[in-house]
TrEMBL record:
Pfam families: DUF4232. PROSITE patterns: PROKAR_LIPOPROTEIN (PS51257). Keywords: Signal. This is DUF4232 domain-containing protein. Residues 1-20 form the signal peptide. Residues 31-76 are annotated as: Disordered. It comes from the Bacteria. Residues 97-234 form the DUF4232 domain.
Amino acid sequence: MRWNRFGIRSSVMAAVVASAALVVTGCGSGASSSTSASPASETPASASPTSASSSSVSPDSATPTPVTSPSVASPSASAAAVTPAVDSSRGAAAAVCSAGSLKVAARQAADRPAGTGIGAAIVEFTNSSAKACVLKGHPTVAGAGNGSPEKNSPLSVTTTGSASPVTLAPKGKAWVKLTFVQVQGEADGFCESGAEPVVYPTLVIGLPGAGKYQVALDDGQFAECDNKVTVTAVSRVKPS
């Protein structure tokens, strides 16, 4: 014999319910239906707390915790792994190429103004040291004074393009382009401005923080008009 949650024996409860049903039957079907529904409604009520209690203490409810932790930690570990690489690359780019770490050469440019002079030249910088170094900026240009720096003849420089750091690995190269006011005509030629053309066997090329270098063309001499030159910024891309 079982006891319900109110401490009443099931058999007694059943008898009481049966008697109540007989008495109420004569009063109408509406009273009967409301009385019979009352015991049925107790069943889900008693089951509902049990279900809620089970879900709150079930071991399965703790399962998402270890699964969630690795997925959250994984991006952090990935970010930490990337950071040193970025920092180390920035550190390598900090040193400016010293005056003794570069070799400089010059040759005529393929793309140059119309005329009979040199017109334009490409200046090439090679890192001859054992360590990476950085070049940045636009060059200064002067006609060399035959071995006497005080006799150098600075050219008026017009810059083109924005300057950004260029990191050179050992044996790495960078370039600038010099474009002159072109000499016209044959023989000694002439300048459209009416000035006399000037010829320099060598030029002195300077870069910010990296010193100055005297350089000759590998295929001629620098001939120009008006002591003017247009220069590009140092670039890792060789100009034409």
